Amino acid sequence: MADEVTLLDFWASPFGMRVKIALAEKGVKYEYSEQDLRDKSALLLQMNPVYKKIPVLVHRGKPVIHDLSRKIWTTKGEEMEEAKKGFFECLELLEGELGEKPYFGGETLGYVDIAFLPFCCGFSTYETIGNFSIEAQCPKIIAWANRCLQKESVAKSLAEPGKVHELVLEIRKSLGFD
């Protein structure tokens, strides 16, 4: 499997360290690719063209997570349909891990919740641009997000969905999608 999973990272990145821990805990073998942040590699720029940052987890030649959300608002037609499929596969996997628990770790807000919550700020934007409903396909994820947003610490820390939407529209325009 190491030939299928690659981590593009910088040795001191706390975000990359999280990924390494998660991969180790899950027993996933991977190839590590150290990145020079002052001279970004062609692979890093190809795998994360919007943010151009590490870490990037690559599975079978495709970036994970950032790619799933980014492709919804940077593609059209059949490519967007494929992006939506991948996006929902990821959400369904997370929904399976959540199960009937209030939070990913159980009864209290934990690390996985904190790591995943920032992506929820873009849900309404993805739905609008992709013309789909996350709640229709992954109701437990939306219920979880709403539960988390009831916590003051979460509500005060996350970006406003409206501002995220405006930013995405600006980026789409700069990329020639609108």
Assigned CATH architecture of the largest domain: Up-down Bundle
CATH class of the largest domain: Mainly Alpha
Domain count, please report it.
Answer: 2
Strand order of the largest sheet: 2-1-3-4
- Judged by helices, strands and strand pairing, the structural class is alpha+beta
Main beta sheet = 4 strands, mixed
Q: Helical segment tally?
A: 10
> Helices and strands, in N-to-C order?
EHEHEEHHHHHHHH
Give me the Rg, rounded.
17 Å
| Share of helix, binned | 55-70%
What is the CATH fold-level name of the largest domain?
Glutathione S-transferase Yfyf (Class Pi), Chain A, domain 2
SSE topology:
Layout lengths: L4 E5 L4 H13 L4 E4 L7 H6 L8 E4 L2 E2 L2 H8 L3 H22 L12 H10 L2 H8 L3 H4 L1 H11 L2 H6 L3 H14 L4
Parallel strand pairs: 1-2
Antiparallel strand pairs: 1-3, 3-4
Helix pairs in contact: 3-4
Q: Can you describe this structure?
A:
- β1, α1 and β2 (31-34) form a beta-alpha-beta unit.
- The protein has ten helices and four strands.
- The protein has 178 residues and is of the alpha+beta class.
- The chain has two domains: 5-64, 3-Layer(aba) Sandwich (Glutaredoxin); 78-174, Glutathione S-transferase Yfyf (Class Pi), Chain A, domain 2.
- α3 packs antiparallel against α4 (77-98).
- Residues 37-175 form the GST C-terminal domain.
- This is glutathione transferase.
- It comes from Populus yatungensis.
